[in-house]
């Protein structure tokens, strides 16, 4: 799709005759970490009714725990609802590939972190005769486009993104890197309205009033992220302001919503977990909690974050939100997408109870396009028909590394860690680690001897809800 116009690619011109019932398709989702498990399962839950869905957890050192999987799988439709109470046990890659060899599905959604996605796509492409259509993608906010996202997933048949803006950015990046674009559009599962529609006009942009449901709306929910911001001082600053908010507003529960308990892994590594930064004298209405974001939003008067996808989930529900810009606006903070959204603010806005409401003109290009624009399922269907006809063409990898079998063993060991117990993997690790270390040292020395001019990362100034923006003032009190 280009600027809202569809592109006739990947066999999409082959359509079923009018009135022909769709063929039942078996589609398997392969997931690993917490965020990829949530995204993959919920994307599949939006698939056409004639797709018979299965889900497999890939065993890696960073695979989500059963508790994380239970939270990730909450709210799925009938085809996958059982996963919330009975999450599948992780399965090793070789066992997964053997299962696909014995009974190949029509398609597989590879919803895994980059190195694991690359490995799984490569293994299936090489080892599974009459392989399934390989669909992949990224969870959450994927703007600005990142080359590694494309690099690891270049061999997949289809790459799913979630906004017109993302599709344009990734298409441009892929072409610049010599990769033929293969991107499709899907409404982000968490950006759908409560009615299940993805259309812009289905989103309630008015602030949600307190309700008399099973639980009152009494929570300001902070969606924590493991690596944004990364600096310990910045993270302590956020915690300090959350503590101040709790003290200023004893009528609120200020919830630090975390994605992992101690010892659990996440998609991105967390060096300074927020629970460790909460002071011992924090007020009792400041709590740290895990679980399902949807359940927390059921009680939320507002959602606060730096750049979490949870803000899109809040917008879809009509919950006021705030994307903190105290540390600026930058690629590393993943908050450039929210510029001019109406949701930007700072921690002073948080303490004073000032939250944003989304601007309608921002929505179409940023995750809230009409459902009719989504083409990922249609294009997957077209690719499955090509597979039926024996016309599915393998895509080239972006990786140009030499080394053959030993190099593949290194990449496998790098992706799977201790989950790879092969002798060749151990050999590749032993040989490859000093080589990689030496290359890194050489690159550092070159940068010292012959510095490469760099352009500083563009950083926007902090923004506030006090800068003339329309705001939702929720229980605001003067600071005292």
Automatic annotation (TrEMBL):
Origin: domain of life: Bacteria
SUPFAM superfamilies per the UniProt record, alphabetical: UDP-Glycosyltransferase/glycogen phosphorylase
InterPro entries (alphabetical): DUF6716
Organism listed in the record: Curtobacterium citri
The protein's name: Uncharacterized protein
Lineage, uppermost ranks: Bacteria, Bacillati, Actinomycetota, Actinomycetes, Micrococcales
Region (Disordered): 1-21, 195-217, 455-480
Compositional bias per record (Basic and acidic residues), positions renumbered to this chain: 1-15, 202-217
């Amino acid at each position: 799709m280009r600027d809202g116009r569809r592109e006739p690619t990947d066999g999409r011109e082959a359509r079923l005759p009018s009135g022909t019932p769709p063929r039942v398709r078996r589609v398997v989702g392969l997931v690993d970490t917490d965020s990829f498990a949530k995204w993959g399962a919920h994307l599949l839950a939006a698939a056409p009714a004639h797709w018979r869905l299965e889900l497999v957890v890939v065993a890696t050192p960073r695979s989500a725990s059963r508790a994380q999987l239970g939270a990730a799988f909450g709210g799925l439709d009938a085809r996958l609802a059982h996963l919330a109470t009975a999450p599948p046990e992780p399965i090793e890659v070789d066992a997964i590939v053997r299962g696909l060899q014995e009974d190949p599905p029509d398609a597989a959604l590879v919803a895994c972190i980059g190195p694991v996605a690359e490995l799984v796509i490569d293994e299936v492409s090489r080892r599974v005769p009459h392989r399934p259509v390989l669909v992949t993608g990224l969870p959450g906010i994927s703007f600005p486009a990142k080359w590694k996202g494309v690099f690891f997933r270049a061999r997949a048949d289809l790459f799913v993104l979630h906004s017109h803006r993302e599709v344009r950015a990734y298409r441009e990046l892929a072409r610049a890197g010599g990769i033929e674009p293969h991107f499709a559009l899907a409404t982000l599962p968490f950006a759908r309205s409560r009615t299940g529609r993805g259309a812009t006009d289905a989103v309630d942009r008015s602030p949600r009033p307190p309700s008399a449901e099973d639980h009152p709306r009494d929570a300001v929910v902070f969606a924590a992220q493991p690596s944004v911001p990364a600096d310990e001082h910045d993270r302590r600053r956020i915690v300090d302001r959350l503590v101040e908010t709790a003290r200023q507003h004893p009528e609120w529960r200020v919830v630090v919503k975390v994605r992992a308990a101690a010892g659990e892994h996440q998609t991105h590594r967390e060096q300074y977990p927020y629970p460790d930064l909460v002071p011992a004298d924090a007020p009792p209405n400041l709590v740290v909690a895990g679980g399902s974001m949807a359940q927390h939003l059921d009680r939320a008067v507002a959602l606060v974050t730096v750049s979490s996808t949870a803000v899109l989930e809040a917008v879809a529900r009509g919950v006021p939100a705030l994307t903190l810009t105290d540390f600026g606006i930058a690629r590393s903070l993943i908050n450039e997408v929210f510029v001019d959204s109406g949701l930007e603010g700072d921690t002073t806005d948080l303490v004073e109870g000032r939250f944003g409401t989304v601007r309608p003109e921002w929505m179409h290009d940023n995750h809230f396009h009409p459902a009719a624009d989504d083409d990922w399922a249609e294009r997957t269907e077209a690719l499955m028909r090509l597979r039926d006809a024996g016309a599915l063409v393998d895509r080239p990898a972006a990786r140009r590394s030499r080394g053959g079998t030993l190099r593949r063993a290194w990449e496998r060991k790098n992706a799977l860690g201790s989950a790879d117990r092969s002798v060749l993997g151990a050999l590749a690790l032993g040989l490859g680690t000093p080589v990689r270390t030496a290359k890194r040292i050489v690159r550092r020395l070159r940068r010292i001897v012959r510095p490469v001019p760099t352009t500083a990362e563009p950083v926007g100034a902090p923004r506030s809800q006090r800068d003339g923006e329309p705001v939702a003032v929720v229980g605001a009190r003067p600071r005292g």
